[in-house]
């Protein structure tokens, strides 16, 4: 770790949330020589949304489909400090979409020649009639549904984009904006698609920054954040510290037990709607505005089987409405240590993700049964393979939904917070899905630490209204 340098007298910095953003902020403050900070985490261990758990049957699970890739040198350096080369496994992404009774490579729009002939003809016809370069008008359509139809044509929307994204977002696509898309939805090259149909296509180019990715050899994704937390002064990291109120006037946060903790600057990495609700003096108009922000809840169902891993693919997409999950991840392929008896090759593990609307009722036993049956029905698990483990984790705040009007709300709430010494950062602090990956969170944590200590306002992500120059990963 670099030798600390002298830091100016910035005052006390309190950080809420020991996920990737909060941990990176605390680590950077330490690196820069600032010791007057306190990191408060409501859970019993650090990691936040990037945590991993080990179930009763000794299977390791993540809270969703995390993989390690990076847009930023700071994140690369952090991994190099925390892991030796042998402690990270590296994979080429191999992703497929279940379509009918077969599989087609991801992304859907680049592999239309894999479709049955009638579907391929309809998709190609509508794609050619659309404007794949987005030039169908002088301005991009405001809502996501219209944007998809304008860029890809209605046949692709009907066959993949609409059913899949409706499952992912648990939100009508007409209610979502399109400014967030950037590189999260793959563009198309019509000439390449036509060449594939007549058999003259060059090998497909791998798309997206996660075309190759890393994964910890043991401990799941959470191992990254356990190691980072371990190098933060233990006296400056408190777990099971649940903040229930923020008072900007007295510059204090109040914990569930009544304890008051003072701050000069507050970096808040939890959900922005919760922050506004518990911040005294936050205007009623802003509290009302922030309640319009939407998010998904995700049920992660991890299924372990007493059968070895035979599938070489990384993760699979399921647009079908009769399958509960939108994605299944081959978790035993990521790292053999994710299953018990890794050396014996006895077990395999599939991690599924099902989106829910917040507060939606959930029959866990029924969801486990449905996920297990779907994996077997679609050939991912042998029909007679014994089920060795079934673990369910419900993530109440999984993904912020980029709805219409979101940016207008953020433009009101975030400046008010910052004017009162409160800096919302991280996936749900900024409420911007397009900068919601782990490397984005780390970059935000590092940048706000530097801003508070150095007095600059330079933050690459948190202050950037347009991310077209920042490559981002696609989940859809």
Written account of the structure:
The chain has helices spanning 20-31, 73-82, 117-129, 144-152, 154-169, 190-197, 222-230, 272-278, 284-290, 331-334, 364-377, 406-419, 427-430, 438-454; strands spanning 13-16, 37-40, 52-54, 60-62, 88-92, 95-99, 102-105, 212-216, 237-238, 243-247, 252-255, 260-262, 265-268, 294-305, 315-317, 327-330, 348-356, 387-401, 422-424. The protein folds into 3 domains: 13-55 and 68-91 and 219-293 and 402-454, FAD/NAD(P)-binding domain; 108-197, no CATH class; 295-400, Polyamine Oxidase, Chain A, domain 2. The strands form 5 sheets. The chain has a 7-stranded mixed β-sheet with strand order 7-6-15-16-17-14-18. The protein starts with 12 loop residues before the first strand and ends in a 22-residue tail after the last helix. It has 476 residues and is of the alpha/beta class. 30% of the residues lie in helices and 20% in strands.
């Amino acid at each position: 770790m670099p030798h600390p340098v002298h830091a100016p007298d910035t005052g006390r910095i309190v950080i809420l949330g020991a996920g990737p953003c909060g941990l990176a902020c605390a680590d950077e403050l330490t690196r820069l020589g600032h010791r007057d900070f306190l990191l408060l985490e409501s859970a019993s261990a650090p990691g936040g949304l990037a945590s991993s758990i080990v179930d009763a049957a000794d299977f390791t699970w993540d809270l969703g489909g995390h993989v390690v890739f990076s847009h930023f040198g700071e994140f690369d350096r952090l991994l190099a400090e925390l892991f030796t080369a042998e402690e990270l496994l590296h994979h080429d992404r191999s992703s497929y979409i279940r379509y009918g009774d077969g599989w087609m490579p991801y992304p859907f729009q680049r592999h239309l020649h894999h479709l049955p002939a009638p579907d391929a003809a309809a998709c190609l016809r509508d794609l050619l009639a659309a404007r794949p370069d987005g030039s169908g008008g002088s301005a991009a359509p405001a809502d996501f549904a219209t944007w998809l139809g304008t860029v890809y044509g209605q046949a692709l929307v009907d066959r993949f984009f609409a059913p899949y994204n409706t499952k992912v977002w648990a939100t009508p696509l007409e209610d979502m904006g399109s400014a967030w898309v950037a590189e999260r939805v793959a563009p198309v090259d019509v000439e390449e698609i036509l060449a594939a149909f007549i058999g003259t296509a060059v090998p497909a180019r791998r798309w997206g920054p996660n075309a190759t990715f890393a994964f910890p050899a043991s401990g799941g994704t959470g191992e990254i954040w356990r190691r980072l937390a371990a190098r933060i002064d233990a006296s400056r990291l408190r777990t099971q510290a649940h903040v229930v109120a923020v008072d900007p006037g007295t510059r204090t946060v109040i914990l569930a037990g009544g304890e008051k903790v003072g701050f000069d600057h507050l970096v808040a990495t939890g959900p922005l709607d919760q922050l506004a609700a518990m911040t005294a003096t936050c205007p009623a108009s802003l509290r009302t505005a922030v309640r319009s922000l939407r998010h998904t809840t995700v049920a992660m169902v991890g299924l372990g089987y007493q059968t070895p891993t035979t599938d070489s693919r990384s993760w699979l997409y399921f647009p079908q409405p009769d399958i509960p999950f939108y994605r299944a991840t081959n978790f035993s392929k990521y790292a053999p240590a994710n299953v018990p008896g890794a050396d014996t090759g006895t077990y395999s593990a599939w991690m599924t993700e099902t989106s829910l609307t917040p507060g939606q009722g959930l029959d866990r036993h029924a969801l486990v049964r449905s996920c297990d049956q779907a994996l077997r029905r679609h050939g991912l698990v042998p029909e007679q393979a014994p089920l060795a483990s079934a673990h369910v984790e419900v993530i109440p705040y999984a993904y912020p939904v980029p709805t219409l009007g979101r940016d207008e709300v953020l433009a009101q709430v975030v400046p008010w917070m910052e004017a009162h010494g409160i800096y919302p950062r991280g996936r749900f602090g900024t409420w911007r899905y397009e900068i919601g990956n782990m490397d984005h969170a780390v970059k935000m944590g590092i940048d706000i630490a530097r801003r508070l200590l150095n007095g600059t306002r330079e933050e690459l992500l948190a202050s950037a209204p347009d991310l077209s120059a920042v490559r981002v990963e696609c989940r859809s």
